[in-house]
Amino acid sequence: MMTGTTASPGTKATPMSFLLPSSFSLRASKSSNLWLMRRLPVNVRCVSSSPAADTSYTTKVSRNANIAKLQAGYLFREMAKRRAAHLLKHPDAEIISLGVGDTTEPIPEVITNAMAERAHALSTVDGYSGYGAEQGEKKLRAAIAATYYADLGIEEADVFVSDGAKCDISRLQVLFGSNVKIAAQDPSYPVYVDSSVIMGQTDLYQQDVQKYGNIEYMRCSPENGFFPDLSSVPRTDIIFFCSPNNPTGAAASRDQLTQLVKFAKDNGSIIVYDSAYAMYISDDSPKSIFEIPGAKEVAMETASFSKYAGFTGVRLGWTVVPKELLFSDGHSVAKDFNRIVCTSFNGASTISQAGGLGCLSPEGLQAMEDVIGFYKENTKIIVDTFTSLGFNVYGAKNAPYVWVHFPGRNSWDVFAEILEKAHVVTTPGSGFGPGGEGFVRVSAFGHRESIIEAARRLKQLYK
Ligand SMILES: Cc1ncc(COP(=O)(O)O)c(C=O)c1O
């Protein structure tokens, strides 16, 4: 455990702040820019804490019953566990990870330069800034509105800049509270369902059907073109809809999204539209739900720079909540979301936001297109590999994911087989919902040589 105290072994710990020189003046030192270099006599040491298993002491706090409903680990944690176990068994294995969906290519320099410039400015008096607006910098909000929602009637004030789409999904769940019922595509990004469970919107997990009670799972399969049969979906308050979808890679067409908006309007539901992969769309599928007339009254949209600019570690995303979107009592959804954001979030990092502005410069946009183009070439290699082996593959065209069908097989078994025999990590489809059973998701995020090597190993395995 890292402690912020000063102590040498055997001496009493002293809080760090006591060691600031008594004459220390932040303003005076800041203007000379020297204070950063002054070395404080701080000796930070690691103190091991006793493992939880060693103690029989328990608090009197009962566990959150909603968290107790969650099954096993979060999908990607479970995969990491199995990967680690594989490495223990095969310490020399050169594992190729096409699993989690983390980006691999360097962030284009035009973007890192923008971040570096802002970072350096922070060490000058004029360039320093502390807390910013919780909703993000006006300039970035305006640039997002102009770049992604030009002519769609979305304005700067409708855009809430964030530390990523995943974090926003949790904040949206806090906004809705525990008394709503959600629908989600099956399969889909696990965060919609898991955050719903944590919020207490669901009943217990039903092992027989592998679903939580009080969630509508909208089945998306090759048979229905990966778009749910809305005539058989009961009304819910909230509809999470991800397009292009993770994991299937399917992007909904204009006609399908028009049906979805009508369905939401007929039912008085709110759509939370996740467009984290919109820039991967290469056909004429809409890139935003707001391309559909009337959507502003029934939808909000969350998005991210993660998969466009390699910002999975930098962290920057946004959520659009149009002013036209109202709760049943006429109250503005955006106003309540603003309240949640201001209460639980202190704004995205200023350095990330500078990066966001870099992304949206003409050179930045071109650079993101180039990175996306690179991953799409990877996608083609993966698709060609599996199709040459006789598999049916889906997705890929509008997303960095290839959804590979292994009819009749358990997807964790396929995951284990590919890991064991090819040392390649994929993602078992069932981790995205029961509708993912019989599939694995193969991610196109990877260095080219890794993708080619993975393709070679897969061809050997399934020839
Ligand atoms: C559909 C979808 N939404 C959101 C996210 C999370 O994005 P972020 O990195 O902005 O939190 C992911 C990440 O994989 C995703 O697949």
Automatic annotation (TrEMBL):
Domain of life from the UniProt record: Eukaryota
GO biological process, one term: systemic acquired resistance, salicylic acid mediated signaling pathway
Boundaries of every Aminotransferase class I/classII large domain copy: 94-457
Record's keyword annotation contains Cell membrane: no
UniProtKB keywords: Aminotransferase, Pyridoxal phosphate, Transferase
Tagged with keyword Glycoprotein: no
Cofactor: pyridoxal 5'-phosphate
GO molecular function, one term: transaminase activity
InterPro entries: Aminotransferase_I/II_large, DapL/ALD1, PyrdxlP-dep_Trfase, PyrdxlP-dep_Trfase_major, PyrdxlP-dep_Trfase_small
Coiled coil: none
A Pfam family hit: Aminotran_1_2
Family: Belongs to the class-I pyridoxal-phosphate-dependent aminotransferase family. LL-diaminopimelate aminotransferase subfamily.
UniProt name for this protein: Aminotransferase class I/classII large domain-containing protein
